[in-house]
Amino acid sequence: MLARSCARATRSSGPIRSLLQKATSRASSTSASEPSKAGNVVGNILATSGATLVGVGAVAWYYNQYGPRALAMTPAEEGLHATAYPWEHEKLFKTFDHQALRRGFQVYQEVCAACHSLSRIPYRSLVGTIMTVDEAKTLAEENEYDSEPNDEGDIEKRPGKLADYLPDPYKNDEAARAANQGALPPDLSLIVKGRHGGCNYIFSLLTGYPEEPPPGAAVPEGLNFNPYFPGTGIAMARVLYDGLVEYEDGTPATSSQMAKDVVEFLNWAAEPEMDQRKRMGWEVMAIGSALMLLSVWVKRYKWVGIKTRKLVYNPPVGPRSRTPRGA
Ligand code: HEC
């Protein structure tokens, strides 16, 4: 009966249908001793086609989930993938190299500060990490800031204090755009966190300007070719050249050295808590593992009486049970 209704259902599929019909006719013509054979054939067909369907479905689902990715941009538009450099300060047991931070801050001040702000960094945060209190105070006093309104309501200028933030190079975004062919130099405080590839990307960007754009590359007017920048045309020209700054510690100021130092400095600007965070992480791991071991020990200690207990069942000795009926 089941075989017949199946055959009816699969009317459209030729081979399966004839097979089923054969099976049903055999089932109806053969004697009652072989009814299960036809059922077996139909069951096999159903199982095979079911398994095939599940298999095809699984492959289709997997392809849909993990097949080729649909990208909004071509790889060229995305920018060349930055090389992964073994940054010392990114290693789990390492801290920022404060001498490098000092050099990086010097590069920022002498080169990048002409166009880029670093608006989240107050002078006070430089104290103890990059310079001494006196150096930071002197640096702050070089710039003027608005004071509180006086009794007449006028706002006067006063020299900077440790609590002030590093000054912006431009009055506002419009002025910044006007000075840079319409492109806004982004604030660098969080740029290491704000760009895919972090330190690697910024280092590659700063050192990745070729002498000449490769043949065939279309560089729009006013832009510079840089393969690491998404779209390859960047408004910022190459800024780092060998010997551009003079390091006070005598480190040779090659462009890659300056790029490395300024990137490490920008990483500090974005994550000033990094050293402490790593240290706290290790403390948590150490204390956590000690507590874990202790809790394992306490558990075993508490359970030992239960775990080593032996339960024995001694059935009561009595009259033999009745013999079962029918025996
Ligand atoms: C002459 C001005 C100028 C100087 C100096 C300069 N930049 Fe730029 N920078 C720009 C402009 C303009 C942009 C925006 C580029 C664009 O959007 O096409 C930019 C963009 C950037 C970006 C963002 C790129 C991105 O992915 O969006 C980074 C990072 C950067 N600059 C780092 C630096 C560093 C580090 C220095 C110092 C070593 C520096 N810049 C010096 C003008 C400058």
Question: Could you provide a short overview of the structure?
Answer:
The chain is mainly alpha-helical and 327 residues long. It is built from eleven helices and four strands, in the order ααααααββαααββαα.
Protein described:
The protein contains eleven helices and four strands; from the N terminus they run ααααααββαααββαα. It is mainly α and 327 residues long. The chain folds into three domains: 2-66; 80-121 and 165-275, Cytochrome Bc1 Complex, Chain D, domain 2 (Orthogonal Bundle), CATH 1.10.760; 127-164, no CATH class. The chain starts with a helix and ends in a 20-residue tail after the last helix. α5 (98-110) crosses α10 and α9 runs antiparallel to α10 (255-270). The protein has a two-stranded antiparallel ribbon. It has a two-stranded antiparallel sheet with strand order 3-4. β3 and β4 form a beta hairpin. It is 47% helix and 3% strand. Heme C binds at residues 107, 111-112, 114-116, 180, 183, 185-186, 191, 195, 202, 205-206, 229, 234-236, 239-240, 262. Pfam families: Cytochrom_C1 (PF02167). Its EC number is 7.1.1.8. It catalyses: a quinol + 2 Fe(III)-[cytochrome c](out) = a quinone + 2 Fe(II)-[cytochrome c](out) + 2 H(+)(out). Residues 141-154 have a biased composition (Acidic residues).
Order the strands across the largest sheet as they lie in space: 1-2
Q: How does the overall form come out from the CA principal axes?
A: extended
Q: Report the radius of gyration as a whole number of Å.
A: 38 Å
| CATH architecture classification of the largest domain | Orthogonal Bundle
Bound molecules: heme C
What fold name stands as the CATH topology of the largest domain?
Cytochrome Bc1 Complex, Chain D, domain 2
User: Based on helices, strands and strand pairing, what is the structural class?
Assistant: mainly alpha
| Uncertain parts | 1-14, 23-33
The helix content, as a percent range, equals 40-55%
Question: Number of domains in the coordinates?
Answer: 3
Total helical elements: 11
GO molecular function: heme binding; metal ion binding; quinol-cytochrome-c reductase activity
Subcellular location: Mitochondrion inner membrane
Catalytic activity: a quinol + 2 Fe(III)-[cytochrome c](out) = a quinone + 2 Fe(II)-[cytochrome c](out) + 2 H(+)(out)
Domain Cytochrome c: 99-252
